[in-house]
Structures are given as structure tokens and as C-alpha cells.
Design brief:
Layout lengths: L45 H5 L6 H16 L14 H13 L24 H8 L4 H8 L1
Helix pairs in contact: 4-5
Length: 144
């Protein structure tokens, strides 16, 4: 979505929107996963990125990323590899900047990334309010 087409979320009539859910390429029973390689990179949940057990919350994660994209016109997570870190490590860093450090028991031995040391923490409601100028009350509601 370019800047000319970007909508002001506070002025949009959301009741007129329709949505189709498509692309069930990795669909499986929640208790019988087919693969650990799931989800489009930009909508991938931490569990899938880390190769740990995942469930239906992975789908909710993707949906939340898509809602953010529909509201802002931007991807919530767009990781890139750097000279000293991988795309996966950047993805983890983006998660941590938005959600806070990951508990050691879930992700990282010491709760730290290998190569990325400086993180800039910015809560989702603050991103929506400060970067996209969404009224704070609406930003808090959407972020919850």
C-alpha cells in the first residue's frame, strides 16, 4: 500500500470490510503437525521460528500480523540478514523489541541473542500511536 492509498484507521468504517481466508497449504490437525516449516516469514510466530512445538495460537499470531498490515499498510515484522547476523536472529530481535525479552526457558539459553546486542524496545500500542498516529485509546485496544 503506498502512502496515497493509506487509510486513516481512526476514520475508517470497518463494518463495510470483508475478508476471505485462503491458502491452507500447511493445514493440519492441531495435534498432528505435518512440518516445522510453517507460515510465511513475515507472519511467522516465535515457536515456528525456534522450531519448537506450536498449536492453533500460531494461526492467531499470523492473523494479528495481517490485521496490523491491513491497518497500517506495513508489515509488522520484516527481518533482514546483516553482515554479522542471520535473518532468523533479526526476526527474533524484532520480536523482542516489540514484546520484550524472551524467557530463557522458551528461547535462548541466557535470554540473549548471539550477535545483536542493542535492542530498541517499542510497545505495539506505542508503534501504532507514534508511528501511525492512531489515537492512543484505539492503539491500546488493537494492541490488546
Amino acid at each position: 500500500v503506498d502512502d496515497r492509498a493509506r487509510l486513516d484507521p481512526s476514520e475508517e468504517d470497518w463494518s463495510a470490510w470483508e475478508c476471505k481466508i485462503v491458502d491452507f497449504g500447511n493445514a493440519c490437525w492441531h495435534d498432528k503437525p505435518l512440518t516445522t516449516d510453517i507460515q510465511t516469514r513475515q507472519y511467522r510466530c516465535p515457536e515456528a521460528l525456534l522450531g519448537t512445538k506450536y498449536g492453533t495460537s500460531a494461526d492467531m499470531w499470523s492473523l494479528a500480523c495481517i490485521v496490523f498490515e491491513l491497518v497500517t499498510g506495513d508489515l509488522l515484522f520484516e527481518p533482514r540478514a546483516g553482515e554479522r547476523y542471520s535473518r532468523d536472529e533479526d526476526h527474533l530481535a524484532l520480536f523482542m523489541e516489540l514484546l520484550g525479552r524472551m524467557p530463557r526457558k522458551i528461547a535462548l539459553r541466557q535470554g540473549e541473542l548471539r550477535s545483536i546486542k542493542k535492542l530498541r524496545f517499542w510497545s505495539l500500542d506505542a508503534v501504532l500511536n507514534e508511528k501511525y498516529h492512531m489515537p492512543l485509546e484505539e492503539a491500546r485496544f488493537l494492541a490488546s
